[in-house]
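Saturday, quiet lab. Running sequence design on the structure tokens for the scaffold JK sent over.
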């Protein structure tokens, strides 16, 4: 592996109680181990304060990451050669907080600044069959419109036949009771490594 820091990767995610946050850290770590420069960024919380405070884990996580992880800006998206988006599923779809950020990218899209960037994704759900694959497929819809290049983990390593999701890293938290295990973190890191490898190949082809 040629760790030359020639690829810039933004890991952009939303997490309420911290599960997707742990997956995001695994994505950033996987990208760094593949030789990329990385930015770990969280999207702003949109939920009203009373909703956040009604869930102790939610409030604690938001307080903890306030100074730990910077909020995302459009500059992070423009800076990156490759992007990994992370989201919990909401009724089989992308969380509103992440989607709201994606909906602000019209200027970049219109200027062609999202075209040919490389993208991957990871997702968490509260229950089994809670929308892993449908959420990732919904996430990718925006990327297709941008002219981005979607890269998935596929079944490219033996562990993927156990983890079982070829679309991206995923984890079932059992409503927050179960933190991401090695299978989920490993699949997310694999997704990141493949994203970096493809972005690097594209950069070299354009050189």
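Result came back. Writing it out in full:
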């Amino acid at each position: 592996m040629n760790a030359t820091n020639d690829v810039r990767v933004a890991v952009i995610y939303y997490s309420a109680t911290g599960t997707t946050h742990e997956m995001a850290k695994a994505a950033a770590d996987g990208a760094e181990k593949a030789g990329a420069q990385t930015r770990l960024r969280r999207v702003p919380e949109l939920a009203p304060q009373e909703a956040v405070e009604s869930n102790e884990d939610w409030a604690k996580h938001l307080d903890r990451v306030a100074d730990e992880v910077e909020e995302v800006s459009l500059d992070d998206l423009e800076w990156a050669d490759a992007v990994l988006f992370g989201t919990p599923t909401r009724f089989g779809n992308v969380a509103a907080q992440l989607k709201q950020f994606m909906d602000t990218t019209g200027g970049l899209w219109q200027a062609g600044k999202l075209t040919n960037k490389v993208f991957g994704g990871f997702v968490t759900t509260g229950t089994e069959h809670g929308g892993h694959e449908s959420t990732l497929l919904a996430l990718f819809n925006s990327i297709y419109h941008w002219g981005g290049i979607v890269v998935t983990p596929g079944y490219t390593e033996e562990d993927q036949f156990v983890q079982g999701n070829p679309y991206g890293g995923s984890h079932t938290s059992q409503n927050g009771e179960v933190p991401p295990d090695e299978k989920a973190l490993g699949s997310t890191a694999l997704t990141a490594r493949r994203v970096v490898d493809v972005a690097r190949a594209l950069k070299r082809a354009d050189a």
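Notes for JK: The radius of gyration is 16 Å. The chain has a mean pLDDT of 93. Ask whether to fix the surface positions before the next round.
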